[in-house]
Amino acid sequence: MRLNWKKLINGVYLVKEKSNRVNILNSLVIQNNGLTNSLLIDANYPFDAIDELYSRIKTSKMLIFSHGHLDHTAHAFYHQEKFYTPLFCPIQEMDYLTNLDKLMERVGFNKLNLKEQYSMMIKQYIKFQECKYVNSFIPGKDNFDCASFLIESIHIPGHSPGHTAFKISSKNNKARKILYVADIGSHPYYGDLNSDIFQYRKSIDKLEKLYLNDDYILVPAHGNFYNEKDENFFNRIREKIDKNKEKVINSLSKEKPQSLRELIDQRIITPQERIFEPIKELYYLWDGGMIHQHLLELINENRVKKIEKKDFFSHEYILKHII
Predict the structure, then answer these.
(1) In terms of CATH, what superfamily is 3-232?
(2) H or E segment and range at residue 259
(3) Which of the pair, 35 or 176, is modelled with greater confidence?
């Protein structure tokens, strides 16, 4: 068995791959009329685990994605082609699944001349293929309905433009509600060129207010889920973001400007020992984008000055002398 099933409430299961693989997901299976024809959220697994999933649910009414990043969507095509499952993705990112070049352009791999390395990684290691067609929904406006549950979408941009959380409520009884917060979790990421740290922080505030004012089972897309109220969950995310910001500040100087490339090469976000050679260059986006977001914050706070150079990596930054 490749999958572990955990019942959250009657009719809703957290299904997770039994693996030490990086970025395994807490996906949700929501019963429609019994387990057959269930709704799925972020059900991205290796191919044999997807086969195992359908051996139990038989068919799926739809597979809903919280956003378009490939750790959530890479094998969407397999659901579509083998099991004829309708796919739904936030409208802001639906073309990530159908057009690889658009994904690489909008996320930033093309702009930073990392297209070749990223294409190699997703085809050789992730086994991504483009989908033929994907349905869209508008986060915060469009909801999903099934026999026993209402799934409300909540727009939480910042991680990505269409990033979406889901509130899952039972229609038939007083079962606890579930708040699926997608990639607002223990390893905050905001490094794509269309990420936005200002929106990310607002999305944390938005979810925290919702969570603290009602009784929810809290489910992030990665890591642990929380059956009991964890009032510090969102503060821990803020602390990790602020720790990254502090690393950027401590790496800057008031005397000597440093380029973004020089800051990335200090490995202040991802330690050197966690970076593997085949995808080493991609950290110039993943880490570089996060450092850049904090530099934007610091410029906005009038703590850092940007010195324009020829391109994204060569722009220089220096701490201001605050009087």
Answers:
(1) Ribonuclease Z/Hydroxyacylglutathione hydrolase-like (3.60.15.10)
(2) strand 258-259
(3) 176
Helix/strand/coil for 202: helix
DSSP 138-180: -TTT--EE-SSEEEEEEE-TTSSTT-EEEEEEESSS-PPEEEE
- Which percentage of the chain shows pLDDT scores above 90? 88
Query: How many other CB atoms are there within 10 angstroms of residue 163's CB atom?
Result: 27
Q: What is the pTM of this model?
A: 0.95
- For the CA atoms of 192, 194, 197, 203, what is the dihedral angle to 10 degrees? -110
Taking only the tens place, the pLDDT of each residue in 199-236 is: 999 999 999 999 999 999 999 999 999 999 999 999 99
Task: Output the six-digit token pair for 74.
Answer: 């890479």
CA angle (302, 201, 276) in 5-degree steps: 95
Query: Quick one: DSSP state of residue 280?
Result: G
Cβ atoms of 98 and 134 within 8 Å: the answer is yes
**What CA–CA distance (Å, rounded) separates 317 from 315?**
7
